[in-house]
Each structure stands twice: as structure tokens, then as C-alpha cells.
Amino acid sequence: MTRRNIRPALMPEIDIHHTHPLDKAACRAAVDEVARGLSARFGLGGMTWTGDTLSFAGHGAEGRLTVGNGDARVQLRLGAWLGLMRPLIEAEIRRTLRDKLG
Fold it and tell me: Where does the chain have alpha helices with state H?
């Protein structure tokens, strides 16, 4: 019998594309502000910018946020426990994007 790795299938993912009226610099500044708050609140570590993408990881989650002129994309992979709260987490991300980026 062939074994396959099913772990990725067990990790819920969130993928959100958000349009906004900001230019890339203003969007990045807003994302920096949000990232600092999330880092302090949830213990997200390893937040690093590579080009226009902010990568992060924390307790049961890892992901990236890519900024652009007029749009932003959040891609997040949740561990099993946080996966149970996926709808709440996704709603909070959408609300925060709307509030901070427009």
C-alpha cells in the first residue's frame, strides 16, 4: 500500500484578495501598523518583508500578505486548532482590511 502525506489537506487555508484605493506605499504603511499589533497580540514572529510581501508565522498559523497598487492579498495556512475558528479568523481579516485599507 502506498502512503501519501495528507497533512497539507488537514491544514485549512484562507486566501483573500482585497481591492483598495491606496498606492503601494500607503498600503504597506497600513499593513506595517496592523502587523505590529498582530505581533504583540498573537505572538506572531518572524515577520519579514521580501519585496512587496510580508511573511509571518506564529502559534498554529503561517502566511503572507502581498501589497500592490490598489490591491492586497492575504494567504494564511492554519493549524488544526485554529482551523476550527477559520470562519471567525477570515471575517476578522476581511474587517481589518476594509477598516485599514478602505
Answer: 7-10, 24-42, 80-83, 86-101
Range of the domain at 87: 11-101
Q: Give the predicted TM-score (pTM) of the model.
A: 0.81
Please tell me the number of Cα atoms within 13 Å of 82 on its side-chain side.
16
**How many domains in the chain?**
1
Tens digit of each residue's pLDDT (9 = 90 or more) over 31-52? 888 887 777 776 777 789 999 9
- Predicted confidence at residue 22, as pLDDT, reads 93
Whether residue 6 lies inside any domain: the answer is: no
Report which of 56, 55, 51 is spatially closest to residue 41, judged by C-alpha positions: 56
